[in-house]
């Protein structure tokens, strides 16, 4: 994990040097991470399309095996394997959870991972600040970098002392603001804390608001744009009108699991937004926008062409059925005339 943290820290520093702005570095880091996940999103979308194409067969299996859920699941798994359906889409939420850790390290410990100050020097500065009554704890933690940065920014005597001792160079003290907001500060929900410094904390509330907004939009779009959404809605309406059809919609268990993960991720995002520096909220917001963009792209690239092809095939079947019915009626009329 240390190598992963170092790699993400190095990449963020490269982006910071290029753009000259901490916020832009976080934005571009998020874009790179989410772009790397696009192939997995595409693979997931293709699997969903294949599953939708197999919906009639899975419905047949459900009618065939009835209450024998174990046998039904075994046959469904077998059918999906035979038709190349993968479950890579289930991995995506877990990858996103895994990627929280390196991002957390960067935004909570920028002195080590962004400014590239050694751990020993950070610990030495914390010890020095503690000996002078400026820090409450001697223990080195990533989160403690943030108050240490505040001391370095606001206490010129302490900064000069750290520079003279060789703990930090002036060029390592970076500007961590974005659009006038200090991304090292943590958004607050407590009105008392907010009003103690409204100029700092009120603008930061934009991050939790946008986190919730982008995720709600993303969840809705994931539902509306998934293959077979209309068919599923129609099937549910038929179940409501006819109780005998209840439970016949395939993949109910998978749908429940997906819903649970879908709601769990925004909750985790909101908690981290209010407990970590605002840079983490910026990461979630850009990640949400990238997710929406990915959904739109995969819909127009794969889902819509599939649905149009499916509609075309259904229309052809209907025309063939109509023609056959017409031929039968004509034949029946001719037979009656002969009689």
Report on this structure.
With 339 residues, this protein is mainly α. Helix 1 packs across helix 7. A hairpin with a 2-residue loop joins strand 1 and strand 2. About 2% of the residues have low confidence. The chain has one domain.
Shape: elongated
Number of helices: 17
Q: Give the domain tally.
A: 1
Q: What's the total count of β strands?
A: 2
Counting copies of identical and different chains, the oligomeric state is single chain
Alpha carbon gyration radius: 29 Å
Terminal-residue CA separation? 88 Å
Q: Strand portion, in percent?
A: under 5%
Spans where pLDDT lies below 50 across 5 or more residues: 246-251
What summary fits the major beta sheet? 2 strands, antiparallel
Q: Supply the helix-strand structural class.
A: mainly alpha
Strand line-up across the major sheet: 1-2
Helical fraction: over 70%
Order of helices and strands: HHHHHHHHHHHEEHHHHHH
On the 0-100 scale, what is the average pLDDT?
Answer: 79
Helix-strand layout with pairing:
Layout: H1 2-19, H2 22-36, H3 38-53, H4 55-65, H5 69-82, H6 91-98, H7 100-108, H8 110-113, H9 119-131, H10 145-154, H11 156-164, E1 177-178, E2 181-182, H12 191-196, H13 198-204, H14 206-224, H15 229-241, H16 252-275, H17 278-338
Antiparallel strand pairs: 1-2
Helix pairs in contact: 1-2, 1-7, 2-17, 3-17, 4-5, 14-16, 14-17, 16-17
């Amino acid at each position: 994990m240390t190598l992963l943290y170092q790699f993400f820290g190095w990449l963020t520093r490269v982006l910071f040097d290029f753009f000259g702005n901490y916020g832009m570095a976080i934005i571009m880091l998020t874009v790179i991470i989410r772009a790397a996940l696009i192939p997995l999103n595409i693979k997931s979308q293709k699997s969903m399309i294949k599953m939708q194409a197999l919906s009639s067969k899975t419905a047949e299996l459900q009618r065939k095996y009835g209450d024998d859920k174990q046998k039904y699941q075994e046959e469904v798994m077998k059918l999906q394997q035979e038709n190349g359906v993968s479950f890579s889409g289930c991995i995506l939420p877990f990858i996103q959870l895994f990627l929280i850790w390196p991002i957390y390290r960067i935004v909570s410990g920028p002195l080590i991972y962004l400014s590239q100050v050694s751990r020993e020097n950070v610990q030495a500065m914390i010890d020095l600040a503690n000996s002078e009554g400026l820090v409450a704890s001697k223990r080195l933690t990533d989160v403690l970098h943030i108050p240490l940065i505040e001391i370095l920014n606001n206490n010129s005597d302490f900064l000069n002392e750290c520079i003279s001792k060789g703990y930090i160079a002036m060029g390592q003290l970076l500007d961590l603001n974005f659009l006038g907001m200090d991304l090292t500060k943590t958004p607050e929900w407590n009105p008392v804390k907010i009003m103690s410094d409204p100029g700092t904390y009120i603008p930061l509330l934009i991050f939790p608001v946008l986190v919730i907004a982008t995720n709600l939009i993303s969840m809705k779009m994931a539902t509306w744009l998934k293959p077979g959404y209309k068919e599923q809605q129609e099937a549910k309406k038929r179940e409501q009108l006819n109780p005998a059809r209840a439970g016949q919609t395939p993949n109910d268990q998978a749908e429940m699991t997906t819903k649970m993960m879908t709601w769990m991720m925004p909750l985790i995002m909101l908690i981290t937004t209010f407990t970590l520096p605002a840079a983490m909220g910026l990461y979630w917001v850009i990640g949400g926008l990238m997710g929406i963009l990915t959904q739109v792209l995969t819909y127009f690239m794969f889902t819509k062409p599939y649905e149009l092809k499916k509609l075309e095939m259904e229309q052809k079947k209907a025309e063939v059925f109509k023609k056959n019915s017409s031929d039968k009626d004509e034949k029946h009329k001719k037979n009656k005339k002969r009689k």
